[in-house]
Amino acid sequence: MTTSKVYIETFWQIHRMIEEAGLQPGDRLPSERELADRLRVGRSSVREALRALELLGLIETRRGEGTFMKPFGDHQLIQLLGSFILQGNREKRDLIETKMFIERMCLQLACERLTDEKLEHIARAEHTYDLFFQRVVEATDNYLLLRIWLVLNDFFEHVYTLTLPSEFYEQMWTALQKRSCEEATAIYEQYVMQKMSKAN
Fold first, then answer.
1. Tell me: the pLDDT tens digits for 15-52?
2. CA distance 133 to 145
3. Do 105 and 166 belong to one domain?
4. Which of 3, 81, 108, 185 is the most exposed place for a label (fewest CB within 10 A)?
């Protein structure tokens, strides 16, 4: 097996190990030596694989402490991919359409599953669209939807800036308090969809 193939295979082996171990942001990875022994590869291959993960911002090395997992939203993969795949108008249009579809679905689920604790969590969100809506998506209790939304939103922010008036947050908060999916969707369509449609 060529050196490059060994390095790529080691990259995916480390990725699988991270998933199987359930490592979370802030958790420490085994040392280069431990990884090499566990995966039965040379330390140079482990070093190259870790360097690739660090380049993408998935892990960080702290001098004298070791290598640690980084929060999902901190990595640079979205920016790197966005630079290549969001070149044409069709791709940008598809991104906006998919984001709006996912967000309307999340609003409906959030209204159905909102608790007083989740409402309080949303109330404490800053009046910036990404932070506010992330709290809404978190209220769905669907981790996969949250991961999908985070990726879509990162792609979107790579291309567009969405600024909404304070009225949007006030009206959306009132609709969420009433658990009214109809009102929340109407407010979303009035403010967000119209703004995104103009960005397209």
1. 888 888 888 889 999 999 999 999 888 898 898 888 88
2. 12
3. yes
4. 3
Q: Which residue type sits at 106?
A: C
Q: What whole-number distance in Å separates Cα of residue 86 and Cα of residue 155?
A: 8
8-22, 107-121, 178-192: segment of lowest average pLDDT:
8-22
Give the burial string for 17-40 (b: 16+ CB within 10 Å, else e): ebeeeeeeeeeebbebeebbeebe
Looking only at Cα atoms, what is the longest distance across the chain?
A: 61
User: What is the radius of gyration, based on Cα positions, of the chain?
Assistant: 21
Q: In 27-171, where do the E strands start and end?
A: 59-62, 66-69
Q: Are residues 52 and 81 in the same domain?
A: no
State yes or no: pLDDT of 168 exceeds 80. Answer: yes
In this structure, the answer to whether residues 88 and 163 fall within a common structural domain is yes
How would residue 6 be classed by pLDDT, with cut points 50, 70 and 90?
confident
- 100: DSSP letter: H
Output the domain CATH number for residue 42: 1.10.10.10
Rounded distance, CA 6 to CA 96, Å? 39
Q: How many residues are given for the chain?
A: 200
What pLDDT score was predicted for residue 197? Answer: 73
Residue 71: strand, helix, or coil? coil
Interhelix angle 143-159/129-138, nearest 10 degrees = 170
Q: Is the pTM of this model over 0.85?
A: no
* CATH code of the domain covering residue 94: 1.20.120.530
